[in-house]
């Protein structure tokens, strides 16, 4: 029953509101350091929502949830992380599949069974909102991973909306990117307006209700451009003009991402070529000049758009594993990741030495060492490596040239590679030197123009100062890096 309306008392006209304070410009995504978490494998904050079963098996739910992640946000903020990407949170198919050779559940979030419900094993909608709010309180943006291309195996949508899907059971899967059933998963007919509207309505509703800052878009090339154009239009109109879209185009690079960037369907995409080029260079495959050409090519990204580069992920073999556990080389890879163009993506645990391995080991539990945090309590972690990451991230965040600057090779002779990053807007100039060799190395380069009038520069990574001269003389220990910039 509706209560009677009480007439409002007559009052004098209120004075006009004070003019709003000018809005602080949004932080550029070029400056972000993104941390990627598989929620189930990170931290268990609510044991009451855990799935029963063997939490040591590779395909089971291990208990990580939104409350656990929220409780460990200080771990990320102290590392220097400025943005967080979480795996999908929708309700997953209820059972398991055995195609992997072992029982495999939807702990990763990519096998949705209901686009209008969160999976209780990850937590509640209130938990999701609390995570976003707590991250924002720490200055950390949040990206939610969303999947439009497919639901999970044997999803209820196959029975409830059979005309919406292509499936192997009905022999309706195509052979091209848009109509194939990726990994045998039912394929949504996203080209059908009714299907597209359902999926968009559901995911945009989660964005509005949670307050996330953007989406990480799964399986981009398996959905048509028309869908992505409508998706961009609606996110800007209904969520925020600044809503950020990071797309996963499998095997993507500057060239293959351009058809999505030029019509402005998304803001950024993953550069899958980064890890292979970087590890190849560090392991001595190819000359420094060739690696430099690759880094130069990354600067040709469509204006206003970004590349995101990673060393490890949930879909590829971890870099430390590829390097056979060689921590010296891995540190150099991290140094290159955090001093080059693009948004660096740190995969959970690699900053403390989680080796990753091949699938499913690349989705192992976050190592927490002596911290009583399940499921990875007691798992060894490398705190010295974490301190190294903290130092690299702090350097990147303090120097706009490393995130926004131009790239110029200064020396590509032998095993010593030296390059300059320069930001014209701020005048910031940083020189990075890498010695991939197993013996001491040296390089002599012209004193950078960006340091004209500077009496001395500092090794921002290792400490120590170098006085100005006609040339910059660089000595490097075996398998080491130096990052030089102006003395604060």
From TrEMBL:
| Metal-binding found in the keyword field | yes
Keyword Nucleotidyltransferase annotated: no
Note down the stretches annotated as region Disordered: 1-25, 358-379
Instruction: Enumerate the SUPFAM superfamilies for this protein.
Output: (Trans)glycosidases, Glycosyl hydrolase domain
Q: Which UniProt keywords apply?
A: Metal-binding, Signal
Bias kind Low complexity: ranges: 1-13
Which Pfam families has this protein been placed in? Alpha-amylase
- According to its UniProt record, which cofactors does this protein need? Ca(2+)
| Ranges where the Glycosyl hydrolase family 13 catalytic domain occurs | 36-396
Q: Which domain of life is it from?
A: Bacteria
InterPro entries per the record? GH, GH13_cat_dom, Glyco_hydro_b
Gene3D superfamilies attached here? Glycosidases, Golgi alpha-mannosidase II
State the protein's name: Alpha-amylase
Q: Which organism is it from?
A: Corallococcus soli
Lineage, please?
Answer: Bacteria, Pseudomonadati, Myxococcota, Myxococcia, Myxococcales
């Amino acid at each position: 029953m509706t209560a009677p309306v009480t007439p409002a008392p007559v009052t004098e006209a209120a004075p006009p509101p004070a003019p709003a304070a000018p809005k602080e410009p949004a932080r550029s995504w070029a400056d972000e350091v993104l941390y990627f978490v598989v929620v189930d494998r990170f931290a268990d904050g609510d044991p009451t929502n855990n799935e029963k079963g063997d939490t040591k098996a590779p395909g089971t739910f291990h208990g990580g949830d939104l409350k656990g992640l929220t409780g460990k946000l200080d771990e990320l903020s102290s590392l220097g992380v400025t943005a967080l990407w979480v795996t999908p949170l929708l309700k997953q198919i209820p059972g398991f599949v055995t195609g992997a050779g072992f029982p495999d559940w939807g702990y990763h979030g990519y096998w949705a069974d209901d686009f209008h419900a969160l999976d209780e094993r990850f937590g509640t909608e209130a938990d999701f909102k609390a995570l976003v709010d707590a991250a924002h309180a720490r200055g950390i943006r949040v990206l939610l991973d969303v999947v439009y291309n497919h639901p999970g195996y044997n999803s209820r949508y196959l029975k409830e909306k059979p005309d919406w899907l292509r499936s192997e059971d009905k022999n309706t899967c195509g052979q091209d990117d848009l109509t194939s059933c990726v990994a045998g998963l039912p394929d949504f007919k996203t080209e059908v307006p009714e299907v597209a509207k359902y999926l968009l309505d559901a995911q945009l509703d989660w964005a509005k209700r949670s307050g996330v800052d953007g989406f990480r878009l799964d399986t981009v090339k398996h959905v048509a451009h028309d869908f992505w154009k409508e998706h961009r239009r609606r996110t800007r109109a209904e969520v925020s003009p600044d809503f950020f879209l990071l797309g996963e185009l499998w095997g993507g690079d500057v060239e293959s991402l351009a058809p999505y960037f030029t019509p402005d369907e998304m803001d950024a995409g993953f550069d899958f070529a980064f890890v292979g080029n970087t590890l190849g260079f560090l392991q001595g495959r190819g000359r420094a000049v060739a690696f430099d050409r690759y880094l130069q090519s990354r600067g040709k990204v469509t204006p206003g758009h970004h590349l995101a580069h990673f060393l490890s992920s949930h879909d590829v073999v971890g870099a430390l594993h590829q390097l056979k556990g060689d921590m010296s080389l891995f540190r150099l890879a991290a140094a290159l990741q955090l001093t080059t163009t693009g948004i660096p993506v740190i995969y959970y645990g690699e900053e403390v030495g989680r080796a990753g391995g091949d699938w499913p080991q690349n989705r192992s539990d976050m190592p927490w060492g002596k911290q009583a945090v399940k499921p990875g309590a007691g798992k060894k972690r490398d705190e010295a490596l974490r301190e190294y990451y903290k130092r690299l991230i702090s350097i990147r965040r303090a120097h706009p040239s490393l995130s926004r600057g131009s790239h110029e090779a200064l020396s590509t002779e032998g095993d010593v590679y030296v390059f300059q990053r320069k930001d014209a807007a701020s005048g910031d100039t940083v020189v990075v030197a890498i010695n991939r060799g197993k013996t001491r190395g040296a390089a002599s380069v012209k004193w950078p123009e960006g340091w004209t009038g500077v009496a001395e520069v500092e090794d921002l990574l290792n400490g120590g100062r170098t006085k100005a001269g006609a040339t910059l003389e660089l000595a490097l220990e075996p398998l080491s890096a130096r990052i030089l910039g102006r003395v604060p």
